[in-house]
Structure prediction request, 355 residues.
Amino acid sequence: MVEQLLRTPLTELVGVRHPVVQTGMGWVAGPRLVSGTANAGGLGILASATMTITELEAAIVEVKGRTDAPFGVNLRADAADAQQRCDLLIEHGVKVASFALAPKPELIARLKEHGLVVIPSVGLPKHARKVAEWGADAVMIQGGEGGGHTGSVPTTLLLPSVLDAVDIPVIAAGGFFDGRGLAAALSYGAAGIGMGTRFLLTQDSAVPDAVKELYLSHDVNGTVVTDKVDGMPHRMLRTKLVEELTETGALKRLGPTMRRTRAFKKESQMSWPALLKDGRAMKKAQGRTLAQMALAANTPMMLKAGLVEGDTSAGVLASGQVVGVLDDLPSCAELIDRVVIEAAECLRRASGYLV
Prediction:
């Protein structure tokens, strides 16, 4: 395990050795992956959106039992129980609160009062400026190359535009998988990189081995962005199921959508009023139509079917485009070591161009 080679605003802010973040992927970023990342010197982010409150507390306790290093928890800012989940982070001394959407100013203030580092994810410079004004400590951006919900602007354009918009640290995600990417991001002015698919494809990831092999079998054209799963652009592996969803009309998707809604209600232990409240909050925050809100119920259960149960005939597999250039399953420690060593070598080599 290598010692610190790169000191950036991210390593200083969070107290990790390396400016590498394992993103909070639903059903993937559990205690084993998060602690593996943390012990390797990176920042592991626990995904909480697919957990009940009880499950989240148990996961936090498990991570703390596996590592003494800083880690974070990713939260849905628009969830009905967001405040209760933040209270858990405060109670257990979690270092970082990561948000998929912008948290309200009062929530940011409360977390910071208790010593947490607040890092929302943003997709536009104006959103970065807003959360910076509200007190966020850093932001993460994800370019269109990234997996899961994503935008259309590539990282090479989104990153510099956000860097120009704010003075707080910016973490770049979308298309990163090695030390060359980390060196490039640092050269742009980023404080570090976030990686999702690369960490999913590690030995520490709990994704079934057969599913990992399926990921590794895809080339750079092996992903597709579609809104047919939950009404929002979503990058995932090209599979037979995804092709069928893309071609199926809305009426034919209605039955499966309602079945998955009931399944998610049971899994999450949420009441119908709570589900409806969450839906209204998402509609207001993201501008989704009622039809898109119904489709959104697909996502948790379809991702679980593929990523947890290994049933690719009934599930979807979120993936970044980098899947096409990956061919191995390292441990988190092996991955982070080689990323930071290669990045340091790239930066030293590039410094030779200076006159």
In short: The chain has two domains: 9-208+326-351, 223-318. Residues 223-318 form one domain. The longest strand covers residues 117-122. The first helix runs from residue 9 to 14.
